[in-house]
Specification:
Layout: E1 7-8, E2 19-23, E3 29-33, E4 36-43, H1 45-57
Antiparallel strand pairs: 1-2, 2-3, 3-4
Length: 60
């Protein structure tokens, strides 16, 4: 397993249910959740940006 420089999202509260993100030198983005740290999602910066943009514009 690779060692990544994980950073906690500034929108995650203290304690559990935190989202972490790490980027590799090739630009790949890795995401994980604090309750399941062995499970990661892998994406590209463009796709992550599109997801965040969609989430911000979707009515709740």
């Amino acid at each position: 397993m690779h060692t990544y420089n994980w950073q906690k999202s500034t929108y995650s509260p203290d304690g559990s249910n935190c989202v972490y993100i790490a980027a590799t030198p090739d630009g790949t983005i890795h995401l994980r959740e604090s309750d399941e740290p062995d499970i990661t999602l892998t994406t590209t910066p463009d796709r992550l940006h599109a997801l965040i943009r969609t989430l911000k514009t979707t009515p709740r």
